[in-house]
Design a protein that fits this description.
Length: about 325
């Protein structure tokens, strides 16, 4: 309810001239939109499955119904979106909009047409996360914004609009649009990564390695193996990098680290760099090792592995989870730098 009042102001008093009161009915959407998912936390590359349910709680048939899902484009790969349900009352087609969203409407999904009071529609929606995040985008959660919209025609008779019998007797027709929204959000697991790069020369062409290049049978060739650990999502603790050298490859004892403890050899013979705490950052932590390789006759003309296995590990303080991530393969094939 609201009232508009008009006053006349005189030197002696402020006199009320007219007061008009009006009651407006506020309409709330009565379309129920429920979203559930099989994921409590999100890992890069993971596929997330959603269940979406619509229920018409209005007292009229809902027309022009559409459903939109807008995944965070920094986190999700929109090209992997699909609807997986196969029942008559499910929506099986997706129409991708020009923006960063997917849309279901009556054209692509006839099951949305004419949703009667009390009726429901349910369907599955699937989408995958990107395999890596841009280093300039700091995100520690992923979200999908869901919305459903529909319209209602409101017809106001002349008698309700204007009691004057001489007025135009055509009714007023208005369209009310309703929108129901839900935001689904889950925390991201850290994108802890380990990248190994063997080098014989620097980017400027200065020689780092020693010996034959390419390696010759029974001749020693020394490389520098550079180790980079990345983490741009959540703060981590107890971070370490470990690697096991291949047969015929040894550590010369020379090494460098940007932070943490010096390289050590554990009981299994693996080389370990204990980093410690690692706050989320667009920048990597780096270390290096000089390694020696002496190929045997059976490896002649090949590109043997220098590292048999490698991994980075740490504890994610946001999702409370131990992480173990494998490193990349490293052979005698060198980068162009």
């Amino acid at each position: 309810d609201f009232t508009v009042k008009a006053y006349q102001k005189t030197p002696e008093a402020k006199l009320l001239q007219v007061a008009v009161s009006k009651t407006l009915k506020i309409s709330y959407p009565k379309l129920r939109l429920d979203i559930t998912s099989d994921a409590n936390v999100l890992d890069l590359g993971q596929t997330v499955n959603f269940k979406i349910k619509l229920e018409n709680q209005e007292d009229f048939v809902i027309e022009n119904l559409s459903v939109t899902a807008a995944p965070d484009p920094d986190v999700f790969n929109l090209g992997t979106a699909k609807s997986t349900a196969k029942t008559k009352t499910s929506l099986t087609n997706i129409s991708q909009s020009a923006g960063q969203s997917v849309v279901w409407d009556e054209k692509t999904s006839p099951a949305l047409a004419g949703l009667k009071p009390g009726e429901t529609r349910d369907f599955d929606f699937q989408i995958s996360l990107k395999k890596s995040l841009s280093p300039i985008v700091h995100k520690n959660s992923g979200q999908v914004k869901f919305s459903a919209s529909y319209s209602e025609k409101v017809i106001t008779p002349r008698s309700a609009r204007d009691p004057d019998p001489s007025a135009d007797d055509s009714p007023d027709v208005a369209v009310k649009t309703f929108i129901v929204s839900r935001v689904w959000r889950a925390p991201l697991v850290s994108d802890l990564r380990l990248i190994l790069t063997p080098r014989y020369f620097t980017d400027d062409g200065d020689q780092l390695g020693r010996g034959s290049l390419p390696p010759r049978v029974n001749k020693e060739t020394k490389y520098w193996l550079f180790v980079n650990v990345f983490n741009s999502v959540n703060d981590l603790k107890d971070v370490s990098a470990g690697l096991s050298l291949s047969s015929g490859v040894t550590w010369t004892g020379k090494s460098t680290v940007s932070t943490g403890e010096p390289w050590t050899v554990d009981a299994s013979g693996a080389l370990v760099w204990r980093v410690g705490d690692f706050k989320a950052s667009p920048n990597s932590l780096s270390a290096g090792l000089e390694i020696s390789f002496k190929p045997v006759a059976s490896q002649s003309g090949q590109e043997p592995l220098l590292v048999a296995s490698s991994q980075a590990s740490g504890y994610d303080l946001v999702v409370n989870k131990n992480l173990v991530r494998p490193g990349n393969k490293v052979t005698t094939r060198l980068s162009s730098g």
